[in-house]
Each structure stands twice: as structure tokens, then as C-alpha cells.
Amino acid sequence: MRFGLSEExxxxxxxxxxxxxxxVPLDKVREYADGGSDSTIWQGLSDLGIPxxxxxxxxxxxxxxxxxxxxxxxxxxxxxxxxxFLGSAVMAPFALSNSPEGFGExxxxxxxxxxxxxxxxxxxxxxxxQASVHVKDGKVDGTSLFAFDAEADSYLVADQNKNMFLxxxxxxxxxxxxxxxxxxxxxxxxLTYSSASAKPVSxxxxxxxxxxDLGRVMLAADTLGAAQxxxxxxxxYAKQRxxxxxxxxxxxxxxxxxAEMAASLEPCRAMVWFAxxxxxxxxxxxxxxxxxxxxHLAEVGQFVSRTATEVHGGMGFTDLLGLHYWFKRIGANRxxxxxxxxxxxxxxxxxxxx
Amino acid sequence: xxxxxxxxxxxxxSDVVNFLDKNSDKxxxxxxxxxxxxxxxxxxxxxxxxxxxxxxxxxxxxxAEPDIIRSRIIGEEFSKSRINPGLGxxxxxxxVPTLLEMGTEEQKQxxxxxxxxxxxxxxxxxxxxxxxxxLASLTTAAVLDGDEWVVNGQKIWTSTAHLADWIFCLVRSExxxxxxxxxxxxxxxxxxxxxxxxxxxxxxxxxNFNETFFTDVRVPxxxxxxxxxxxxxxxxxxxxxxxxxxxxxxxxxxxxxALVELMxxxxxxxxxxxxxxxxxxxxxKLQGRVLAMKYNDMRVLSSRLNxxxxxxxxxxxxKLQGTELRHELEGLAIDIMGEVGLSYDDNPHLRxxxxxxxxxxxxxxxxxxxGTSQIQKNIISERGLGMPREPKIEKKAx
Lengths: 354, 398
Prior knowledge:
The structure holds two protein chains of two kinds.
Chain A: H1 7-23, H2 26-33, H3 39-47, H4 66-78, H5 85-97, H6 104-112, E1 117-120, H7 122-125, E2 133-136, E3 139-148, E4 154-158, E5 164-168, E6 174-179, E7 188-197, E8 199-202, H8 205-240, E9 242-243, E10 246-247, H9 252-281, H10 283-311, H11 314-317, H12 323-335, H13 340-350
Parallel strand pairs in A: 1-4
Antiparallel strand pairs in A: 2-3, 3-7, 4-5, 5-8, 6-7, 9-10
Chain B: H1 7-23, H2 36-48, H3 68-81, H4 90-102, H5 105-116, E1 122-125, E2 141-145, E3 148-156, E4 166-172, E5 183-189, E6 195-200, E7 209-220, E8 224-225, H6 231-244, H7 249-265, E9 267-268, E10 271-272, H8 277-305, H9 312-316, H10 318-337, H11 355-368, H12 373-384
Parallel strand pairs in B: 1-4
Antiparallel strand pairs in B: 2-3, 3-7, 4-5, 5-8, 6-7, 9-10
Helix pairs in contact in B: 1-3, 4-5, 4-6, 7-8, 7-10, 8-10, 10-11
């Protein structure tokens, strides 16, 4: 029995972390937040083989498992890195390679990073503002809200009935407009379709659910990394900052805040590992664990992001430290692909309670 | 990731399950430690290696090599079947491991066999009215007079003192030494003249705790474990072990499953409580936390099996999180029942034999006992996160 990361997985984690430390410092994130591009970051991650991680080997991928992807997601969250990882490296390759329609050629382009796929699932999870998506005879009409990756070449779209299809971003029938959110480390868009071409991916709601589970576990892993970074920053700050002639880290009030963060967050690491592992290797527990992991990390993330900010005192509230980028990213992960109350209600339904 | 224990352990598990199937009728139902049935059951469990497994044969144990996985499988299967897992108590859980580590050969021969067979019941004399979280400031005095220690002072929270035959007790034997270096670890009979016990009723209504008073209690000089002044190390040799066992995740799992069943059967205004979206969300939130602790525990287990894996922080937070979680879980059961949830003792509307209220309060006791939550947070922040200790306040000159 061995519960934890393998040597290869630790190596993967170290490689990604080294790349992000060197290439995605906070200044780089600020550039993106102020309107810059994430293309050099994505290029670098592509050189490391990240978009190929989950793609089966027959389509030019590496054919690794969700746990490997979760390790990368955690690092990306830790460094609040911009980029299309969630959609293009995880959800789309999974859905497309399991689609009966055959997307081999596209998958090999996704695996090299040259083609980016975004995700527009909101209307299949919890529709807002009466947005809806309608497909008929290969044409799509309607609206998807808060689709992620504003620079995608195509989008994996789901309608209210969990049918999935692919639309090309440069189709004449699509208009795309930025939706500004508090989280500036990633961009979301509103997609409006008017008789745009829609290539069917799947009518199997089970494939949609599994794609969604995968995405939710990745968001949980992203929150794990981001929250761990906030906790580390808070502990470090408390050791440096002196008041009343002593480091504030020696005050129990501050220590207990940090201890509570660590106590909530540390079990999340094991939870994310198990949830990701279950997606490929423990199918009977995978769905329930994915729901609980998404919702639990949303709650712990909220607690840690608020408490770590508080430990920083007034500085935590400023733009100077940039701590707010982590706070907002964790806040976005909480809402994306299902807010915690919705996800928990799905967990109840999975156990025969609705 | 490899979650299987391997085929040889599957065989071991089926042995345990078969044993339980065949022998469940012999197991005592209640918690009477003195009953003949309890002793016979204990003997049978030891003979089969299902309790006191690693205690050497020469001291009355089963004499197996330590095997974390086998011990765990035994724990899991007994917990699942809800069959009595054998005798517990502080003699077996704390004194015996201490003696194995620090006792003389004579002490091991004399005490271990009767203790693990239920013929010698122990209580623990550690806390004092003035020495709780700051245990090392204890003042119960032991002064050597010829071949005997003379003990004077008071202990508190002495669980089962009224049932015990013997006590293992921390005393101050070197009043001039620094506080951690002036303590000794003594063993003496509870029938020794000069011992007075007063029951201390706790909030659940049970008098399991006691206040224990010592007036010129004379203890033979050789009934000391370790050297004079070494008592703190002797006690700490196994104290960490106690914290690990206070809130085991698999019982939280059993309890939340029971809570789901309760919410499916209990109704308010004719509506099942499980169908109430607010209660349902609270239940799901707790289930998520129970799962997180379950996987955390798997990680801790793995780190004990695989050298090089570090799960020290996971381990450090278990008592804090586990006791808090159980308290909230039992509390939700009370909430969903409303007034019915207040039922206690002989109330005809009692659910689960009163376990929800009892455990709700009992776990508040555990949040405080065994190192309070606040002490746990000090440990996590200092040893886990490397934050500095609070500066010591200089003692004021009188």
C-alpha cells in the first residue's frame, strides 16, 4: 500500500514548479491581469508536454492519468498562472478522446498546444440569466455565459441536456465578448451563437458527467495550491512583521489562525490525491468524491484565503503584495463548474437522496 | 498510488471475518471490565492475536512482530461488525507500552500479564487541579523515607480510579530540579492507606472521573519506572500515541452513515428530514469533511509503511480536526430531531439509546481532554509551521 505521489509524479511536480518559478513570477501575472497575453507561458508549458498529459498515446499524447494532471493543476494554482490548462489540457482531451465521433487529428494539435479548446458548460450545470444553448441540424443558437479561456480556438459547449459539441471560435455565427470578473488571472467570455456550425461530440450524459468531475477535481487542486501558497505567505509574513517588539508570529491569536488554516488544508491534499486517483482507478467512488472534493475545497479555500489575508493586516488588503490575486482566483474556483451548494446537492442525489 | 494491502492481507482479513462470524456469541455486550465473560473473551482474542498482538508471549501477549496493516485490518473488521474488540483502559493502552519500553524485567513480569488479562485494572494519575495543560508544573510530592516513597497531594480527572486496583502516577520527587527534571513515575496499589477518592460527575451524568487525594501514602522504593527525575520522559514515551487514538476516522464514517439513516427515518411535519434542503446541505458538508479526514488517515498510514513519506502535519492535526468534526456531527443529529433530540435517559422518545446527546457532550470533553484544541493549535503552529513560542513571562520577585 502506498498512498501518495510516485517518484515520477514528484519529478513532474518539481519540473512544473521550476518552470513557473522562473517564468511566471507575480510581475508576469500582473502583466496578464492588465491585458497582456498568456501565449509565452502556454508555449513554455507546451514545451514541457503539459497539454499532452492526458491525451492517449495514439493521438500523440503521453496518456497519463488524472492524478498527474491534478499535480500540475496544484502547481498552477500555487503560482496563480494564467493559461488554458483546465479546458485545453484536461477537460477537452478527455471528452474528445472518449467521443464516438473521432477527433484524432484535432487531439494531436491540442497535445502540442497549438490548438486551444475552451469550455462552455455553465448552461448544463446551473443556468444564469436565462442563458441557453440550442442545437438543431448541426447549427447552434443561443448563449453560453462565463466560458473560460478567452483566447481559445474552439469551444467544447454543453447544452441544457448535457449534449456536448464543438464550435470553432472563428465561425461567422459566433461572437465572443470578454466578461470581466474579479479574477484577472484567467479570462472568461460570453459566447453568442447564431446558426454557428456545431460538431457533435457526445449525447451521452455520462461522458459529460465524467468530464465535469475531472474539471471539478482540477479546480479543487488549483485551490489547494493557491491556498497553500496563501498560508505559506501568511506564516512568512507573520515571522517578519514585528509589533510590540516581537514578531506577530509569536502571538497566539496569530498562531492559532495559521494552525486552523493548516488543520483545514492539510487533509485537502490527501482528498485531492484520492479524488483524482479515483477518477481513473476507483470508478465506484469517483463521482461522489469528485463532488465532495470540489465543494470541500471551495469551503476550505474561502476560509484560508480570508484568514491569510487577515494575517497580513492592512497590507493584505492592498494591491502592493498582490495577495488578492490568490484570494480572487480561489473565489472564482469556488463558483466555476458548480457552486458548493449545487455540487453538494448532486452528492446527495448520487446517494439516492433528492 | 496503490491502495491495496496485497493478497496475503486479504487472506488475513477473511480469517478475522470468519473468527467474528463463529465467535460473536461469546463476546460481551456491555462494558463491564470485571465480568468473567469479558475476561474469557479477552483471553480468546489474545490467543488468536486480535488484541495485545505485539506484546511478547513471555508477558502473556500473542507475540507477533509489529504489522501496522494487520492491526488495522483487525480494527476495521471489529469496528464494522460492532463486536467488542477486547479490554481497553489506560493500563492496557498506556501503562503496558510504557513498561515494555522503560520498565525493568521484574516490572514487566509482574504487571503486564495480569493487566492485559483484565485481572489488574489501572488508573492514571497525571493531571492536578493546578497542572492541566501545563502538566509539568505538577506538585504532588514524593519524599523518600528509608525504603519507601511518601506521597502527598491531589490528582484530578483520574478515570476509573474507583474501579482500579493500581495507579501509575507522576509525582515531584526532586523539588529543587527544573520542572521537567524533577518528576518520577510511580506505581502503587489503590488499597494503600491514605488514598481517598471522590467521584466527579461529568456533564453527561456519568461519574467516570474522580478527584484522588494522597495523604502520607507509602510506596515501596522499587515501584518506580525509570530513574528518579526521569518521569517526564517515561510518560512522554507514549503520550503522542494517545492523541492518535482519540478520534479515529473510521468511527466518524460509521457515525455519519448512522446519521444518514436517522435523517431518512426522522420526520418533521410529516416531511423526512433528509428531504429538507438545509439539513441535507449540512449533512453533505459534514460528509465532505469526514471523507477528507479518511483520506488524511490513509496518508498517515502510508507514511508509516513507506519510509521517506512525510505526513507529520497530517498526523498533528488529527486530534484537533477529528474531535471537532465528531462534536458537530452528533450536534447535527440533535438539530434535525429538534425537541426529540433533547431526550435523555428514560425518555420514551429516545433515539439511538441516547447516543447522539451523549457523544455530542463526550466529544466536547475530548476537545478539551488529551491536550486541548488550543494546545493542539500551539503544537501545529510551532512544530508544524515553525512559528515562535510565546515569550515567557518573568516571574515577579515577591
